[in-house]
Amino acid sequence: MREDKILEIFYYISKNSRGNNSCTIERAMRYLYFADRFHVLKYGTLISGDCYFVKSTGAFAVNSELILREALKNGSEAIEVVGYNIFGPTSENFKIKYLKKSEIEALDFAIKSLKKIMNKELLKLVKEFPEYKRYAGALKNRGASRFPLILEDFFSKFQSKKHNFYSQISNKQKKAAKKKFLGESKEGANSSTPKT
C-alpha cells in the first residue's frame, strides 16, 4: 500500500465530489469503499490495497483513514483542511502519478453513484451488503466492536431495495475478477486478514 497513492485517491475524491471542491472524511471513506468494491468486482484487485473492518457505521479502510487524518494534521501536497472534518485538494495543478485508468473508473463510479445519496440513506445501503450482514447480529449486541471484513463477501449476491449498484459489471467480468482475486488472495496479495 502506497501512502502517496492513497493521498492521490483522496485528492481525486475531494476534487470531484459534491460541494465546492471539498469532502467530509466520512463521505470520502464511503467513496473509497464503494470504489474498492467496484474494482474488486470488475478487475479483481483493491484500489487502496488496504484492509477493511466492519463496524456499526459500515465498512472502513483502516490504514487509508489513518493516512488521510495524518495528512490533514501534518500537511500534504495533495489535500488540505478546509473545515471541521472537511478537506479539499491543495491545487488544481497537482499531478496524479499512481492511479490507473481502471482505478479512476472505479472512483468515478463511486462518486457518481453516491453523490446524491444523503449520509443516513447511505448508511442503510451499506448495511445491505453481504460483508456487513455477516456481522450484523454481533454488531448489534456489542455496539462499538469491529470485525475484519472478508473480502470474498464482495462476490456474494447483493440486491438493494432502492439502488441498482454494480449492475454495469457483467457476470463474465465478475467471474474473471473473482478468479484473479482468489488467485492473488492465495498468494497473500488480497488477504482478507487485516494487518494493522
Number of domains: 1
Cα separation of the termini: 12 Å
Number of helices: 8
The average pLDDT is: 87
Estimated share of beta-strand residues: 5-15%
In terms of structural class, how would the helical and strand content be classed? Answer: mainly alpha
Number of strands: 6
Give the fraction of residues assigned to helices. 40-55%
Describe the 3D structure.
- With 196 residues, this protein is mainly alpha-helical.
- The protein has one domain.
- The chain is built from eight helices and six strands; from the N terminus they run αβαββαββααααβα.
- It has a three-stranded antiparallel β-sheet with strand order 1-5-4.
- The N and C termini lie close together (12 Å).
